[in-house]
Amino acid sequence: MSTTLGTALVTGASSGIGATYADRLARRGHDLVLVARDTDRLALLAARLSEAYGVKADVLTADLTQRPEVLKVAERLRADPAISLFVNNAGIGPKGPLKQENDLDYLDRMVELNVLAANRLATVAAQAFVGRGAGAIINTASVVALAPQFFNGTYTASKAFVLALTESLAQELQGTGVRLQAVLPGLTRTEIFDRVGGSFDHIDPAKVMEVGDLVDAALAGFDRGELVTIPSLEDHGLYEAYVSARNAMGPYLTLSRPASRYASASKAKVDA
Q: Range of 205's domain?
């Protein structure tokens, strides 16, 4: 039942974006390793995809907020030479603004999953793929990584981490045969809102993308070789302009002397 495309390991695969990635990758002919906490849902998904597409689908149950469980998945990435694609998708979303959040332990779990687990697994996958001379990592970030003022600070920061990690790794791994992609979803119709007690009822439907459309667009961006894919962004030139403006600051970010405006302000204070 194995395929020539190799195996894709997908975290957060029991529902939503992860389950849809699993479906689309199986349709393309990838074997699968499906990772999430819910063994029963994973088993049902694995059986359905195996029957529908004739691929091999393994279940690897893991709670990625728990370090031993993260290490278990990391070992699978490191030890299984058939794995050629890692979809680093597991994550949880915010319940509301930080000023109203009483469950600070929940925020800690968000960082453990969205940052610590994502970082460990991406790094292990990168090292493994470099050793094999080929492979690809798809990291699920969010559009809020580019617009932190609009959303919960811990969640936004966690997704900004994922975006920065992807961009840095892509630069570091040039010439190794390993590809990187960060996918930046906007509002997407998945279970993530239900899990934190929210809903889409009060949100303009024109702002909410169906999960199948999201993953199809993300994979189209992957096929085009995009480093960063924003599925709803019609004019990619807007993102290119953003990157150009950011890069223009590069020569001035670390110099031997402070900017003159700070020196002037300091002198004026002394004179006063």
A: 7-271
Name the burial class of residue 91, with classes exposed (0-12), middle (13-18) and buried (19+) by CB atoms within 10 angstroms of its CB: buried
The predicted pLDDT at position 50 comes to: 97
Q: 57-70 pLDDT, tens per residue?
A: 999 999 999 999 99
Known catalytic residue: 155? yes
Between CA 153 and CA 199 the distance in angstroms is: 20
Say what percent of the chain tops pLDDT 90: 79
CB 163 within 8 A of CB 145: yes
Assigned domain for 2 exists: no
CA distances from 28 to 6, 25, 212, 239 (A): 11, 5, 15, 29
Is 1 part of any domain? no
Q: Is residue 26, in this structure, part of any structural domain at all?
A: yes
Following DSSP, what letter does each residue of 222-256 receive, concatenated? HHTT-SEE-TT-S-HHHHHHHHHHHHHTGGGSS-S
The verdict on residue 246 lying in a domain is yes
Predicted confidence at residue 1, as pLDDT, reads 42
What pTM was estimated for this model as a whole?
A: 0.91
CA 232 to the chain's CA centroid: 16
Instruction: Tell me the sheet residues that pair with 178.
Output: 135
Mean pLDDT of 225-243: 96
Domain holding 59: CATH number? 3.40.50.720
Provide the 10 A C-beta neighbour count for residue 265: 11
Interatomic CA distance for residues 103 and 271, integer angstroms = 50
Q: How many domains does the chain have?
A: 1
User: Which among 155, 239, 252, 262 is annotated as catalytic?
Assistant: 155
Q: How far apart are CA 211 and CA 149, in angstroms?
A: 25
